[in-house]
Amino acid sequence: MSDVKKVVLAYSGGLDTSVIVKWLQETYDCEVVTFTADIGQGEEVEPARAKAEALGVKEIHIEDLREEFVRDYVYPMFRANTIYEGEYLLGTSIARPLIARRLIEIANQTGADAISHGATGKGNDQVRFELGAYALKPGVKVIAPWREWDLTSREKLMGYCQQHDIPVDFSSKKKSPYSMDANLLHISYEGGILEDPWAEAEEDMWRWSVSPEAAPDTPTYIELTYEKGDIVAIDGVPMKPHDILEKLNRLGGDNGIGRLDIVENRYVGMKSRGCYETPGGTIMLRAHRAIESLTLDREEAHLKDELMPKYAEVIYNGYWWSPERRMLQAAIDETQKNVSGVVRMKLYKGNATVAGRRSDQSLFDESIATFEDDAGAYDQKDAEGFIKLNALRLRIAAGKGRKQD
User: Fold this and answer.
1) Active site residue: 125, 272, 286, 340, which one?
2) At the N or C end, where does the chain have fewer CB atoms within 10 A?
């Protein structure tokens, strides 16, 4: 292990990564560089500096990546209306490629030999971090302590802290029974009673949203302005992408929007039950589909919907930096050139519903779609030939006596 002289660690300042700092120093006899990213997790990241310093870390990187996270990762993903297995809005998945990229960039800047992370050997994040790292720096060494050490429980981690005088300011406090991950797009909950798929999530678990039953009795209306598939303003006020998502999270949470309880298929092979709060993302998904319904050609929209599950799988499994994701992204972004306009949303007791949509690029023609007199804009007699041509193969088969059961 003497070939590793310096390693960059994705560092949160929590119990696991604090132990990892000392473990890397002891096991690899190397210098540790820490990297802490603020991607909107809702907690102060600056205290991580003092914790890292107390562990003898000399190079400490703490970065506010909220704007970049939403602009360059969340927004491109939502242009595809991306959901995994019909429900999950990929809140954890989409944060990992950005963190992996910064780990590699800092490793290059500091001359580090390796990177390290605190993801366990059972989850998806180890795959996402490492696929991203290898795509960006093929020869990088990755150290994943959870796949090497025998500190397999919280009790063992706390014992290691006591043995090595690692300061952990929450050792005496009641620990949440859930494993949680948060960023500007969502907060996730796993573990505890959620490991029983039959057990209902406790109401006091949720942190970002009120229950739909407790939400206000008066709906909230908002108008979202789109330019080329991205929201650029709320109620006519231009805002940066991360500020938009932050406001939508607040409005959605206040109205009980965005709760999700699913059992998903992890890439590593197991099923996992998780709960998620994605209030802003839920609003964004509904609104984006609404503006696309006006502005996308039918076949373009349908083909895009066919591509989406593959695109979602690519992101979920950690292939953001792959050629297939770039290819799909190029196709998706091409469809967004005319996706501009305004969507009016109604937020009410857990529901985000479309109350109106308009666009200068709209393909909706009222003179053709009307049930009133269309003044010759559409000749209904044309439909007869259209139907007969499309029925031709069905009529031939039926004429041959083929069963249609």
Assistant:
1) 125
2) C
Q: Is 17 flagged in the annotation as binding?
A: yes
On whether 14 is known to bind a ligand per the annotation, the reply is yes
Does the pLDDT value for residue 1 go beyond 90?
A: no
d(C-alpha 239, C-alpha 228), whole Å: 15
Q: Could you tell me the residue ranges of all domains in the chain?
A: 6-66+92-163, 179-296+338-358
Question: Is residue 179 among the annotated active site residues?
Answer: yes
- pLDDT at site 24: 96
Told to judge if 96 belongs to the known catalytic residues of this protein, a careful annotator would answer: yes
Active-site pick, 179, 293, 322, 362: 179
DSSP letters spanning 89-137: --TTGGGHHHHHHHHHHHHHHHT-SEEE----TTSSHHHHHHHHHHHH-
Could you give the C-alpha distances from 276 to 222, 264, 273, 363, in angstroms and in order?
A: 23, 12, 10, 36
pLDDT-based confidence at residue 279 (cuts at 50, 70, 90): very high
Structure tokens that stand for 272 in this block: 């996992």
Q: How sure is the predictor about 401, in pLDDT bands with cuts at 50, 70 and 90?
A: confident
Domain covering 179-296+338-358 assigned CATH 3.90.1260.10 in the classification? yes
> Structure tokens of 310?
């593959």
Give the model's pLDDT for residue 169.
62
Residue 16 annotated in active site: yes
- Active-site residue, from 66, 96, 325, 357: 96
What the block records as the tokens of 80 is 């595809």
Percent of the chain whose pLDDT exceeds 70: 98
Query: In this structure, which topology does domain 6-66+92-163 adopt according to CATH?
Result: Rossmann fold (3.40.50)
| Out of 131-145, 236-250, 256-270, 369-383, least confident range | 369-383
Distance (Å, whole) CA 244 – CA 106: 29
Token readout for 25 is 């120093």
93 is in an annotated binding site: yes
Confirm or deny that 225 is annotated as ligand binding.
no
- Beta strand 220-227 pairing with 341-348: antiparallel
Residue 367 marked ligand-binding:
no
For 43-97, how does the pLDDT look when each residue is reduced to its tens digit (9 = 90+)?
888 889 999 999 999 999 999 999 999 999 999 999 999 999 999 999 999 999 9
